[in-house]
Structure prediction request, 522 residues.
Amino acid sequence: MLIHHVIHVLVALTFPPLLLGVIAKTKALFAGRVGPPLLQPYYDLLKLLQKGSVFSTTTTWVFRAGPVVGLVTAGIAVLLIPLGNGTALISFSGDLILLAYLLGLGRFFTASAALDTGSSFEGMGAAREVTFACLAEPAFLLGLLVLAKLSGSLQLADRAGYPGMLGHSLASHWPTAGASLALVLFSWFIVLLAENSRIPFDDPNTHLELTMIHEVMVLDHSGPALGMILYGAALKLFIFAALVVRLAIPLATGSAWLDWSIFVGGMLAVAVVVGVVESTTARLKLTHIPVLLVAACLLSTFGIILLVR
Amino acid sequence: MTQILDPLMIIALALNFVTLGVSRIRGVINAVALQGILLGILPLFVHPEIGVRGVLLVLVTICLKGIVIPRFLFHAMREVNIQHEVRPVVSYMSSILLGAVGTGLAMVFSYTLPLAEEHTNLLLVPASLSTVWTGFLMLTTRQKAIMQVLGYLLLENGIFLFSLLLLKAMPLLVEIGVLLDLFTAVFVMGIIIHHISREFASISTEHLTELKE
Prediction:
């Protein structure tokens, strides 16, 4: 058991930036470029950690707390979710609420830090971020509701004697309630793209006014603070990708090592799919984003309706 | 059987929402065509023992709904120079929400229907009612004549879904007749669209409220 906890922490801490690297590489391949090396996000993080920081004199402690809280909440959240073998480090009944609120708290502080700079530009980004989050969070929670109804439990991971929502028991529900689960899977993938500000919602590569939601909020951060934000964002991507992978392939092969390799392979596949989506679709008009998010909510809702009918 | 049917029905339901939420007419045509193909395959799953007659029906349906009619509509778009934006009277968001409410009501309503025992747990009836509802929404909330043609197509898809319950009892002639009616309707509408656009320089049905010599 202990060895799996150690692997859980190691994978959760070291793996996230690689996802960003895989996405960038996929996009480069689609565009016919060589692209940055797979490990580029790690180099970026190292570079940023070695730099000094500049803080605007108009900002308060809120601005400095933003990146820290963002990183810490994502760090705790990653301990709550089941990874390769369906168990998590922290697991108790009702931890799904804690997961949702941790992500909410991180967002609250990132948005507050953006508002704290007093820049109208960053205020705009914060407004957009929370507006879209209003629609993405219900979709996520409704999806959790489907899993809670199916498994009859309120915890994400398996715990000794208590099966979890995203644990091994999920595999037995796919043949009977596959339609509901597929709807939730699709809905969560949309949420993944929205929460991590990927195309079609936002373009993480540009710093242009029109496209920016997340990037605009972190314009004033520099050095290690920016590194923390980058790493926190990678962790958040890891969390959502892990949820999607656990939902899509809840296999329990019997051998824990095989489970872990399937999980890691699944994570890489999700990153590749995100890269393909980013390469093949255009960014949505800002006014169309709520439509897609509401559609994600509806997908989850129908998942519930199909279960309770 | 239901293991295959339910996912197909879910895709059909999802396509309803795509037709309401997509802003490009081309996207709507493609979604309706895909739904038509999907529904065309369904009889094979609902009644595996339908024989030659059924297979013929499947082929004709798929050809008409999936290939001929969409091609005709694309052709009409090119000929009449229809702009690509849907421009709904009711916003995309409200359309989707209305569609969702309708689908929810269809689910509730389908339980109150006195259906045959083997049909009660199928998603077939709610999907059919919801597709009809989407067709009505499309007919009433979109201005362009081509969108109304698509509304009719959705309506027909819904009716086709419902008729699947009765496929054994329904003679082939009736089905073919329905398909032929539909094809003629689309054909006539294509000509009407063409005339409207020649007379009025716009195919928005808003202008049809005034009489003109």
User: Anything to note?
Assistant: The CA atoms of residues 48 and 223 of chain A lie 5 Å apart.
